[in-house]
Amino acid sequence: MIERHCRVARLIAARPATVPGAAVLNDVKLNQIIVRFGGDEASERFDRMTADTIRRLQSEGTCFVGGAKWRGRQLMRVSVIGFETDEAQGARSADAIIAAYRSVATSG
Prior knowledge:
This protein has 3 helices and 4 strands; from the N terminus they run αββαββα. It is α+β, with helices and mostly antiparallel strands and 108 residues long. Helix 1 packs parallel to helix 3 and helix 2 (44-60) crosses helix 3. The longest helix has 21 residues, at 87-107. The chain starts with a helix and ends with a helix.
């Protein structure tokens, strides 16, 4: 189960990392992913984009993500921990993350 969670976390991280404006800020070795949207520098606009992406994901319910602050920047935290979480669910989560960010980016 732990190996699968780590594999799914890498799968989830790989997808948004290819989207312009989305940055995975950690080296995904375990089941944790840290993502920032809009840009990597500290800015209120990018903090808002990240927070809005988190809210959109939480309201849609496809996957659960949380927020955190690190070095003055708003971040999205993803933890792959569900007993039955597999690659297909990871792919759906990655798609939902990308769709939520794109929706926020085009609306603001």
